[in-house]
Amino acid sequence: MKTEVIKRHVGDSLKSLRRNGWMSVAAVSAVTVTLLLVGIFMAILFNGNRISHQVENDVQVRVYIDRNVNKTKKAALRKKLTKMKNVTKVSYRSKSTELNTIVSGYGSQWNMFKGDENPLNDVFIVETTSPDSTMAIAKKAQKLDNVSDASYGGKTARKLFTYIDGVRNWGFGFTVLLLLLAVFLISNTIRITILSRRDEIGVMRLVGATNSYIRWPFLLEGAWTGLLGSIVPMVFVDIAYHVVHGSMDISEASNGFSLYPVMPFLLWLDLLLAVVGIVIGAVGAVVSMRRFLKI
Known about the structure:
The protein folds into two domains: 3-56 and 158-292, no CATH class; 60-152, 2-Layer Sandwich (Alpha-Beta Plaits). It has helices at residues 3-20, 22-57, 71-83, 95-106, 134-142, 154-196, 198-206, 211-229, 231-247, 249-255, 262-292, and strands at residues 61-65, 87-93, 123-128, 147-152. The protein is an alpha+beta fold and 295 residues long. Residues 250-255 have low confidence and may be disordered. Belongs to the ABC-4 integral membrane protein family. FtsX subfamily. One of its GO terms (biological process) is cell division. Part of the ABC transporter FtsEX involved in asymmetric cellular division facilitating the initiation of sporulation. It is a multi-pass membrane protein.
């Protein structure tokens, strides 16, 4: 396609947007609302998946040692745990360390249990080669001598994964409905443009204009509508993500989980929103032309 023809198509598409006035505004607004919700869902789902993988990889077995067990028996228990299949590391945490963790997380009122009043157990933290092996290791560890209990975060992790899967599925379905609504509104805008320019299209056909030459301005009009509708969502999502990411820095440092870094995450998210806007705009134009442009 020649440069002059491309310039003409771009100019015609922009003129058509201005000519349609409020219908163009309505279509752009529909895309804006749609992509705003889509952008929020994408940011939540992407980071939800990231955290779920972090939780999955952080699943450990906590082996609680019987009270009043001497150092020799603790060393023997540690050796048995280390020799278990799929165990990568065994670390020791005293009951005083466990209590200090509770105090730092839940408040100084737990200081009353320090010293001889400490009701907690010494613990071995067992790290495994994969999350799938934690259940089997927990069951084996529970049967060892001088072990009062063995637990792991598998149940909590599975609940989290189930919840995230549900949010992902519902979010995907809701997003599809929003995109279809935006396509419908854009197609109606393009249809009005086609109807208002029916005589002009007829003249173009009489002088030998090809089908693609007639279609291109409408495709570009739909793409412009989608691109313009993506600007506000990109700005809003970027600002909101900066605020949320900054407010979570402290909690991330304490629990070991983190959101995606602001950059390049927002760059890719903005690019994705722009592409989605252009695609649904172009699809809206195609739908309108197939139904109402008889050429």
